[in-house]
Amino acid sequence: DIQMTQSPSSLSASVGDRVSITCRASQGINTYLNWFQQKPGKAPTLLIYAASSLQDEVSSRFSGSGSGTDFTLTITSLQPEDSAIYYCQQSYRTPRTFGQGTKVEIK
Amino acid sequence: DEHLVESGGGLIQPGRSLRLSCKGSGVSLGDHSLTWVRQSPGKGLEWVGLIRSRGYGGTTDYAASVQGRFTISRDDSQNMAYLQMTSLKIEDTGVYYCVRDDLLLGSGSYWHVDAHWGQGIPVTVSS
Lengths: 107, 127
Fold this sequence. Notes:
A: mainly beta, six-stranded mixed beta sheet, four-stranded antiparallel beta sheet, B: seven-stranded mixed beta sheet, 0% helix
């Protein structure tokens, strides 16, 4: 199975800050990398797919980059509603494994 | 309004069986692969398995942790998918999500993505 490792596990930042979350795959996955946001008690929602494509109706404050084994999710100008857990997922092959999640808190 | 609605969860004893259902409401399931993802209490997301659309052979793949115990099936005539869980273990406890795979355009290509999620259904395995 392909292992996905996210860092950091959690972060705390102020409104307006730029934050980045990294995701590393245990083997090359081209750009078969997706990012999800999950708020407490809710199902995850898709933010970014194919490493850098923004899902419809997702704020342009979110962006993704990377290919191969190293990927980044960036949130520019952090907003209070961005407080959530963020997961990466590879869709290169099954099982479509997830990273362990990164909790983003607002200071 | 498009929804995936899971049902069939609840409290079940270890070793018993349970079947979860996923119904598409206002959203067609027939031409899509369908995935089950679970989340143990306070933990991250775990991919459980998927069933491909009939156009892709209707084949299934499973995580090693459920292989041989769980079976995913579908009834496209009823716009339904199912997760049959047998020999349940305490560690199978969690919220189970039904997810529809969508074909999305990005960077000039089409990508299969777990884009459309149900609200989730809790399953508790306990004696």
